[in-house]
Write a structure and sequence with these properties.
Number of helices: 15
Oligomer: single chain
Strand content: 5-15%
Radius of gyration: 29 Å
Helix content: 55-70%
Order of helices and strands: EEHHHHEEHHHHHHHHEEHHH
Structural class: mainly alpha
Number of strands: 6
C-alpha cells in the first residue's frame, strides 16, 4: 500500500507512463524518498511526518544533503516526452527515476521537504516584511510582473544563503546555539534588508540580492558602485529602524576588515568601489555624532578642555563624512581602517570642494572648523585653560556644523 505523505506539493501536471498515472511532482518526490533516499534521510523525513521535534543534527544533515551535489541542467532531445522531462521511466512495470535525473530529483525533493519543514518559521518572517505578497521558495516560477519576479527571486536567494551559511559558519553556530534561533534571526535580517531595497528603489532600477551578510568573496566587484549607492540610500532612509541600521553597519564593517586581508585585484576593486566609501561615511558620521554628545557631557561637568577637544573632532569627522559622500575618499592604512590623510588635507579639500566649488557651506562655517582646530591645540598642548565661554561658543558652532553635514548627506 502506498504511504500517505504528510507533505502535499502542488500538482503541476498529470500524465501516463505505461499503465501508470503520474501526478507530478508529488509522485516523483515520494518515489525518491521510498526507493532512492539514503536511510538517514528517510529517518529524518519520517520524523517530520510523525510530527516529532527535530534536533540540530537533523537540520544540519538535511541541509548538507540539499547542498551536497547541486545538479546541472540535463540535455534533453527535442522530442523528449513528459516522462523524460520529469526524470522518470518505466522498467518492468515499475516507475523508476532516470539515471541522468537522479541528482536533479534528489535536490528538488529535499529542497521541497526542507521548505515545508521550515515553513512555520519562514512564513511569519515573510508576512512581517511583505504582508501583501505570496512567496514560493521551492519553484523558480514566472511572474506576470517583472518587478515582482525580481522580488520573488531575491527572497529565494536570501533563503538559500541563510541555509548554506549555516553549514560553514562555525562561529554563527556557536553564537546562536540552536539552529532555529540562527535561522529565524539570520533570515529576518536578510528579508528586512530586501524590504529596504524594495522600498528605496529608484525609478526603473532593478532588484537583486546584495550579499552584505555573507562572506566577502560573495560580493561582485563589477557591482561595487551600484551596491554602494543602494546601501547608502537605505542607510539614509527615514523608515530604517535603529536596530536594522546597526545590523547593516556591523555587516559592512566585517567586510571592511576582511577586505584588508585580501590583496588580489578583485578584492581591491570591491574595497575601493564599495567597502571603503560606505564604511568611511558610516563610521565618520557615527563618530561625529558620538563626539558631539561627549562634548555636551564634558560641558555639563565643566570639563572645558575636553569639551573643546571633542567639538573639534566632531566637526572634523563630520567634514570627512560629507566629503566621502561626494566621492572624496582616502584609502585605509594598515589593518585598523585608518584613512591616509592629515587634518589639513581634510580642511583644504572641504574648502575647495564644498565651499568654493559646490557652495554647500558658507566660508563662515569653514572658519568655525579652523577656529575649533586652533582652540583644540590650545586645549590639548598649551599651558592655558579653555574658558567656559569659549567652550560654549565652539559647542554651538559644532552643533550647527554637524547638523548641516547631516542635512547634506541625507539629501545627497
Amino acid at each position: 500500500m502506498k504511504q500517505q505523505r504528510y507533505f502535499l506539493p502542488v500538482s503541476l501536471i498529470k500524465f501516463q507512463i505505461g499503465n501508470l498515472t503520474i501526478d507530478y511532482p508529488g509522485d516523483l518526490y515520494s518515489l525518491y524518498l521510498d526507493s532512492y533516499a539514503p536511510k538517514y534521510i528517510r529517518q529524518i523525513i519520517a520524523k517530520w511526518e510523525r510530527g516529532k521535534e527535530f534536533t540540530d543534527r537533523d537540520y544540519y544533515q538535511l541541509i548538507k544533503k540539499v547542498f551536497a551535489n547541486p545538479y546541472k541542467g540535463r540535455s534533453l532531445p527535442e522530442a523528449a516526452d513528459l516522462a523524460m522531462i520529469c526524470g522518470v521511466e518505466c522498467r518492468d512495470n515499475q516507475l523508476c527515476i532516470r539515471d541522468d535525473a537522479r541528482q536533479e530529483v534528489e535536490t528538488k525533493t529535499l529542497r521541497f521537504c526542507l521548505e515545508e519543514i521550515l515553513s512555520p518559521y519562514t512564513r511569519p518572517i515573510l508576512e512581517q516584511y511583505f504582508p501583501q505578497e505570496e512567496f514560493n521558495l521551492g519553484y523558480w516560477q514566472e511572474q506576470i510582473n517583472a518587478g515582482r519576479l525580481e522580488l520573488d527571486q531575491t527572497v529565494k536567494i536570501a533563503y538559500i544563503f541563510t541555509l548554506y551559511n549555516y553549514l560553514w559558519d562555525q562561529e554563527a553556530q556557536e553564537r546562536y546555539g540552536y539552529f532555529l534561533d540562527y535561522y529565524q534571526t539570520e533570515l529576518a535580517k536578510r528579508v528586512s534588508f530586501i524590504k529596504q531595497m524594495w522600498e528605496n528603489r529608484q525609478p526603473g532600477e532593478g532588484l537583486e540580492y546584495i550579499p552584505i551578510f555573507e562572506d566577502f568573496s560573495n560580493l561582485n566587484p563589477e557591482k561595487g558602485a551600484f551596491m554602494a549607492q543602494v546601501i547608502s540610500r537605505i542607510l539614509k532612509s527615514q523608515n530604517l529602524q535603529p536596530g536594522e541600521k546597526k545590523i547593516i553597519e556591523e555587516a559592512l564593517i566585517r567586510h571592511a576588515k576582511a577586505a584588508l586581508n585580501c590583496q588580489d585585484e578583485e578584492a581591491n576593486q570591491i574595497k575601493n568601489s564599495l567597502i571603503t566609501p560606505v564604511v568611511s561615511e558610516i563610521v565618520s558620521l557615527n563618530k561625529s555624532q558620538e563626539f558631539l554628545r561627549a562634548a555636551q557631557v564634558c560641558m555639563e561637568h565643566k570639563l572645558f578642555n575636553s569639551a573643546l577637544n571633542r567639538c573639534y573632532y566632531a566637526m572634523l569627522r563630520a567634514a570627512r563624512a560629507v566629503l566621502v559622500s561626494f566621492g572624496y575618499c582616502k584609502p585605509w592604512r594598515g589593518l585598523n581602517l585608518r584613512p591616509v590623510e592629515t587634518h589639513e588635507e581634510v580642511l583644504l579639500t572641504f574648502q575647495k570642494v564644498l565651499v568654493e566649488e559646490k557652495g554647500l557651506f558658507e566660508p563662515e562655517q569653514l572658519n568655525f572648523l579652523r577656529k575649533a582646530l586652533q582652540k583644540r591645540l590650545v586645549a590639548d598642548y598649551a599651558d592655558l585653560e579653555i574658558k567656559a565661554r569659549e567652550a560654549s561658543q565652539i559647542l554651538k558652532q559644532a552643533q550647527a556644523f554637524v547638523s548641516r553635514v547631516e542635512e547634506i548627506i541625507s539629501t545627497n
